[in-house]
Structure formats: structure tokens, C-alpha cells
Specification:
Blueprint (H helix, E strand, L loop, with lengths): L27 H22 L10
């Protein structure tokens, strides 16, 4: 059984694969969350852009 060499010395934090990356890929749950956020933002924008219906209690 062979052991892989450590990427950094013991006691040092591990280095990410590429700078600016957390190391966790964008998975389907991230995509579902992003879709929900985009839907809610779109609904909120439409709420303020669409005109209100005419009043029905005008004498």
C-alpha cells in the first residue's frame, strides 16, 4: 500500500487547486438554489414593472 505525499507540511493549511476556488464543484443543488433565486428576483421585478389593475370600488 503506497501513501500519497502531503501537499503541504503538517500544521499548514492545504492549498486550493487553483487560486480563487473553494475546491467544491458547482453541483445540482447549487443549480436548483440559483434557479430559485433567479425566479424570485424575476417575480419581484415583474411585480414592480407591471401596472396595477384598475380599482373596482369607484363610485
Amino acid at each position: 500500500m503506497s501513501k500519497r505525499p502531503a501537499a503541504s507540511a503538517p500544521g499548514e493549511p492545504p492549498l486550493p487547486a487553483r487560486p480563487g476556488q473553494t475546491g467544491r464543484p458547482f453541483d445540482r443543488y447549487d443549480a436548483i438554489g440559483a434557479a430559485i433565486v433567479v425566479f424570485l428576483i424575476g417575480l419581484w421585478v415583474l411585480h414592480f414593472l407591471l401596472p396595477a389593475p384598475p380599482p373596482t370600488n369607484v363610485p
